[in-house]
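Work Package 4 report. The design task specified in the project plan requires that, given a folded chain encoded as structure tokens, an amino acid be chosen for each position. We show below one input record used in the internal validation round.
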């Protein structure tokens, strides 16, 4: 091939600006993320990292071998050393242990804090400008560990919670009304877990308020099911926790960032005065773009919603305090 001077030869036959997205943890959530990232061609290279030798290499190769069938050109590369992920623009962090039946997310606290601490230091070393999406539970606290260890600005350390919680809520509403999932808009705030705050007043079906389509009793039942959504999956699986929807949620956030879509998505953000709160991660609507969190959006809440958000924040604060007391 003759390449004229001044013409950039693209490495692959598609035009993307993002060269690398890394996923840390090649378990259920992480490997599902890497497959989705590759299928959506969100980066030229998808780097799958894990502490266990062979797992990321094997899964990465297996996923790359699906490329001829699925028709994607993103290379999936598995590795143990972080050098492979040097200068990745986005890291999705799923490393840690998953919840077992009867175990709360908070039980995972100490083990996963140690994992997130070491992962964060590696990210800072090889990709100091990266945007980090934290998925590991207990989410709001692990995001704080990542923020403290990377010392990145708050815009670049984001927790994945609200997109998943909202997706669960929307999926239950679609089942209940037997309508397309595409027409359901909803907002879930607060910490990730049983204290999340689904906002009925911001939920609509093609603009029609949910309260015109369902009785308050039914809405309350769907909200309750959403709050317990993670536990419902754990009780079915018996070993391990949900991974298809969590991975899809993390990848949607990465897509908003690498395509600079400026989407409004509920994310766990480090609050600095928003909603009258400071120095904690809590799920709030954020605009996601190339800089990570471009804006935190404050919505009006009624008295009951505000009280629920306060109690969710209190739960996050007490989990952080529990972690600090273990140090
Ligand atoms: N560095 C890299 N990878 C690690 C490390 C580490 N320090 N410690 C553990 N891992 C890897 C494990 O080897 C495993 O492959 O993280 C992976 C976790 O995978 P799973 O056990 O399958 O857990 P998964 O279901 O993917 O959940 C991961 O996401 O949704 C949350 O609650 C969930 O915190 C859990 C996380």
């Amino acid at each position: 091939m003759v390449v004229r001077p001044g013409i950039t030869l693209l490495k692959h036959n598609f035009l993307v600006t993002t060269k690398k997205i890394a996923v840390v943890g090649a378990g259920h959530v992480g490997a599902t993320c890497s497959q989705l990232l590759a299928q959506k061609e969100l980066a030229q290279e998808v780097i799958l990292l894990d502490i266990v030798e062979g797992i990321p290499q094997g899964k990465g190769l297996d996923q790359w071998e699906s490329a001829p069938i699925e028709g994607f050109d993103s290379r999936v590369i598995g590795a143990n050393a972080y050098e492979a992920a040097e200068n990745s623009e986005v890291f999705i962090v799923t490393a840690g242990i998953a919840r077992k039946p009867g175990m709360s997310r908070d039980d995972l606290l100490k083990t996963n804090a140690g994992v997130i601490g070491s992962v964060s230091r590696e990210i800072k070393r090889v990709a100091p400008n990266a945007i980090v999406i934290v998925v590991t539970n207990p989410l709001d606290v692990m995001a704080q560990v990542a923020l403290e260890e990377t010392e990145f600005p708050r815009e670049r350390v984001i927790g994945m919670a609200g997109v998943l919680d909202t997706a669960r809520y929307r999926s239950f509403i679609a089942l209940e009304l037997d309508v397309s999932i595409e027409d359901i808009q909803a907002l879930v705030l607060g910490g990730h877990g049983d204290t999340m705050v689904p906002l009925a007043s911001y939920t609509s079906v093609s603009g029609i308020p949910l309260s015109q389509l369902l009785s308050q009793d039914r809405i309350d039942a769907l909200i309750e099911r959403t709050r317990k959504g993670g536990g419902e999956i754990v009780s079915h699986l018996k070993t391990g926790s949900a991974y298809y929807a969590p991975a899809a949620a993390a990848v949607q956030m990465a897509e908003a960032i690498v395509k600079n879509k400026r989407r409004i998505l509920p994310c766990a953000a480090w609050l600095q005065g928003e909603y009258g709160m400071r120095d904690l991660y809590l799920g709030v609507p954020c605009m996601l773009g190339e800089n990570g969190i471009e804006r935190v959006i404050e919505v009006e809440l009624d008295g009951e919603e505000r009280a629920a958000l306060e109690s969710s924040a209190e739960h996050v604060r007490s989990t952080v305090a529990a972690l600090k007391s273990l140090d």
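Residues 24-30, 49-52, 55, 94-99, 112, 115, 118-119, 135-137, 240-241, 243, 246 surround adenosine-5-diphosphoribose (CB under 6 Å). Validation will be extended to a larger panel in the next phase.
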